[in-house]
Amino acid sequence: MMHEVEVIKANRKISDRTSGKITDILRVAPYARVSTDSEEQLNSYKSQVAYYTDLVEKRKDWELADIYADEAITGTQVTKRENFQRMINDCIDGKIDMIITKSISRFARNTLDTLKYVRMLKERNIAVLFEDENINTMTMDGELLLVILSSVAQQEVENISANVKKGLKMKMKRGELVGFQSCLGYDYDPTDKSISINEAEAIVVQYIYDRYIDGAGAYVIAKELTKLGYKTKYGNTEWHDTAVLGIIKNEKYKGDFTMQE
């Protein structure tokens, strides 16, 4: 569990937005992100938060504005990163003087987004410090280097994505199951990758198909399942027509397992 970070409000402004004059204390905002929900990556996320907390505390000329961190979500779309957007909003509100992040790929995953936010922040006299690339956007000469590095970062992401897709296809060729864990009526053992029928859940699936063959619609079936107290795969007793339709349209119930359509 991530430790709570005490936010210390700045006693004085770091920079005069009109004259550009810099004072001796920076309100620093570290940004950390991991892109998967695996235990290893979540531990990495916690390590990043601890690292940046310690880093800021060691500097007498820095004070912590806040720590912004996104976890267990993809980084390819900035709009999904809630804490990133919160950080940008705080920059616009004048609460931050410098952002610290591990690398360009941690800050934004494509050239367009990188340049958009760096330019916007630079106009407000807010620096972004990329540790791996050793770039401070307030002191760098032009944007050419940033364009090159962010392009490289984007290429790295695309390579990782291609490798993941290749790995999934190799699993499929070997007959290994991908994405089967939440299928009502079946239990999946990730250890030996075997499937077994869940008798209690199978009754619900049979009921759905029997009622559908009788002419009942998904909305009616959902109401009946809720009234009967049947549970969904996630243990909910309230059913919706979308859940019923998802089962009716699922090709697995006729013995097929379609992948990579």
UniProtKB/TrEMBL annotation:
A Pfam short name: Recombinase
Superkingdom per UniProt: Bacteria
Q: In this protein, which residues make up the domain named Resolvase/invertase-type recombinase catalytic? A: 27-175
What region holds the Recombinase domain?
Answer: 185-261
Single GO MF annotation? DNA strand exchange activity
InterPro entries assigned to the protein according to its UniProt record, in alphabetical order: DNA_bind_recomb_sf, DNA_bind_recombinase_dom, Resolv_N, Resolvase-like_N_sf, SSR_resolvase
Report the SMART domains cross-referenced here.
Resolvase
Full protein name: Site-specific DNA recombinase
Question: Can you name the source organism?
Answer: Anaerovirgula multivorans
- Source lineage: Bacteria, Bacillati, Bacillota, Clostridia, Peptostreptococcales
